Amino acid sequence: MRPIAALVSAAGLLSAALIVPASAQQTPLKIGVLSDFSSVYSDIGGQGNVEATKMAIEDFGGQMFGKPIDMVAADVLNKPDVASTIARKWWETEGVDMIIDLPTSATALAVMELSKRYEKVMIVTDAASSDITGKSCSPYTAHWTYDTYSNAHTVGSAIVKNGGDSWFFLTADYVFGHSIERDTGDVVKAAGGKVLGSVKHPLNTADFSSFLLQAQASKAKIIGLANGGGDTINAIKQAGEFGIVAGGQNLAAIVMFISDVHSLGLKLAQGLIITEAYYWDLNDKTRAFGKRFQERIKRMPTMNQAATYSATLHYLKAVQAAGTKDTKTVMAKMRELPVKDAFTDNGTLREDGRMVHSMFLFQVKKPEESKGPWDYYKLLAEVPADQAFRPLKDGGCPLVK
């Protein structure tokens, strides 16, 4: 028979174990970055998103609940099945708590389904389809940077107001491109303009000649580029070779990034009207972050890279404030806390998963206006969140009552 004292001691230990704070029982926090490291979107996200995630972890202090914060990264090859396979492995066997980035809308929507199944946090900072917070919304997904609705309503409406009232779309043939064409077309038609047609091209297209000829033949005042990254760069370069702008038509880059302007050069990009959620030279906070980022990766951050920093930092703050990694508790805390950082100082996360914030309308400078590398934009307008993003009631998200 065991001594009574031993039994009491054991009972006391058991009781003590039962009242250990939840935060002390947590396993190490682990973040997974699912990105494009090798294809058309690698410049706007890719290694820059990994670096931005690391910066957020470092700025937070590197630890959560007394344990080092871990990070893993993988290339999704812009394939939904590859993205799903990696996400499933991370969530099932590798202890990943949150996945961030997702370079295309198709990969984002695929991983969102797994996020629902595993009840894990997912933050989209690269993919842009407005369906992510619309009909496909999820209680576990946040959409951080921009979307096809926000860009269509800032760039599209500005161009139509300035006389660009007939459009033809060059559209990437997957969810993202279709969403841009749909959302921008709605803006054009609502403003009294016309959509004369569109042509679909495969993702990562090298030769745009046949597509540009169709756009040229449409006689539309505006050729809307419903694509992104390398596809946008190639389309603009080849449009210059075809003399499209010289012939009287104009290009509208509905989704464009500072890395695209850098690749094109100001001679080709000058005069383009674009929208971004972040620009390194907006204010003291954006400049400080931009310069820190540039020191690490030798390029200024895109809005997606700045957003990845913001979203990671906000997630970490929410976990700390919640005192737990529990997904539902953390998501509630993410919605409760304001988003104030180098990316935005007026962000809030809505119940449909959309993080709303100001968007900015820029014009690309002429070469002679630029003071040096990465000095590319003139600010035309700051568009408030309630004007830039789709109203909560209009998205068709089943979570919105």
UniProtKB/TrEMBL annotation:
Residue ranges constituting the Leucine-binding protein domain according to the UniProt record: 28-365
Keywords recorded for this protein, A-Z:
Amino-acid transport, Signal, Transport
Taking the record's annotation, the residue ranges forming a coiled coil are none
Q: What highest taxon heads this organism's lineage?
A: Bacteria
Has the keyword Transport been applied to this entry?
Answer: yes
Record field: transmembrane: none
What does UniProt give as the signal peptide span? 1-24
Q: What Pfam families does this protein's entry cite? A: Peripla_BP_6 (PF13458)
Which SUPFAM superfamilies does the record associate with it? Periplasmic binding protein-like I
Transferase listed as a keyword: no
Entries under PANTHER family matching the protein: LEUCINE-SPECIFIC-BINDING PROTEIN (PTHR30483), PERIPLASMIC BINDING PROTEIN OF ABC TRANSPORTER FOR NATURAL AMINO ACIDS (PTHR30483:SF6)
Similarity field: Belongs to the leucine-binding protein family.
Q: What is this protein called?
A: ABC transporter substrate-binding protein
Top-down, what is the taxonomic lineage of the species of origin?
Answer: Bacteria, Pseudomonadati, Pseudomonadota, Alphaproteobacteria, Hyphomicrobiales
